[in-house]
Design brief:
Distance between the termini: 41 Å
Order of helices and strands: HHEEHEHHEEHHHH
Structural class: alpha/beta
Radius of gyration: 18 Å
Strand order of the largest sheet: 3-2-1-4-5
Helix content: 40-55%
Number of domains: 1
Number of strands: 5
Largest sheet: 5 strands, mixed
CATH architecture: 2-Layer Sandwich
Number of helices: 9
Strand content: 5-15%
Shape: globular
CATH class: Alpha Beta
Length: 214
């Protein structure tokens, strides 16, 4: 087996040796985007899950992510995906919303975890032991799996938003601040799914109703 695959599972193996069986990884997608929802996912993988093709979602192609997504949701002990719309991000702030959403994913799992791994920063008040790991989506199997579920879920939502607001190119920029996307905002103003509190966007520019559902 590829040694990188063995490394990816080392945190989970170590925790299982300590008696923790249901280890959940949690991660989000869309944190830095100018438009679209923030999406988080939590995944509990079984010990026998084949980690071939599992990696940080940013290191995989779209086709690789889709293939991995199918295997993860089919074979996981439990998984969940939650989303938060731009209105809440604007009203509550990005970091507070991010932590709330990660916690919500953990609490909505159909099987309660007995340990939680997160990427980058801790998720407090979970009621179970947890550990935040720098670049966790690149070095931890369950967090990598969560990053894939979150990314694929969000990309599918952005594809649907592209059909409603095609001038922004959401089908390829996914709401991130590319030059093309920023130029479109200057030409057309922000859409109902833009994050009005983010730098470069002006609250109240768009006269329509804010969108709550994809």
């Amino acid at each position: 087996m590829d040694p990188l695959v063995l490394d990816l599972g080392r945190y989970e193996r170590g925790l299982r040796e300590q008696g923790f069986d249901r280890i959940a990884g949690v991660d989000e997608a869309g944190r830095g985007a100018l438009a679209g929802p923030l999406v988080a996912a939590a995944v509990i993988l079984p010990p026998e899950f084949d980690l071939d093709g599992i990696n940080d979602s940013k290191q995989l192609t779209a086709l690789q992510r889709e293939a991995a997504f199918v295997r993860i949701v089919r074979d996981a002990v439990a998984w969940s995906a939650c989303r938060c719309m731009p209105t809440r991000i604007d009203n509550r702030g990005l970091q507070k919303t991010n932590v709330w959403l990660l916690r919500r994913c953990i609490t909505t799992l159909s099987v309660a975890p007995d340990y939680v791994l997160s990427d980058g920063f801790p998720v407090k008040r979970l009621g179970v032991p947890n550990l935040s790991i720098k670049k966790g989506d690149a070095v931890t199997a369950s967090v990598a799996a969560a990053s894939i579920v979150a990314k694929v879920t969000r990309d599918r939502m952005m594809d649907r938003y592209h059909r409603r607001f095609p001038v922004y190119g959401f089908d390829h920029n996914r709401g991130y601040g590319t030059q093309e996307h920023r130029d479109a905002i200057r030409r057309h103003g922000p859409s109902p799914i833009h994050r009005y509190s983010f730098k470069g966007l002006r609250t109240g520019y768009y006269d329509g109703d804010r969108v709550e559902e994809p």
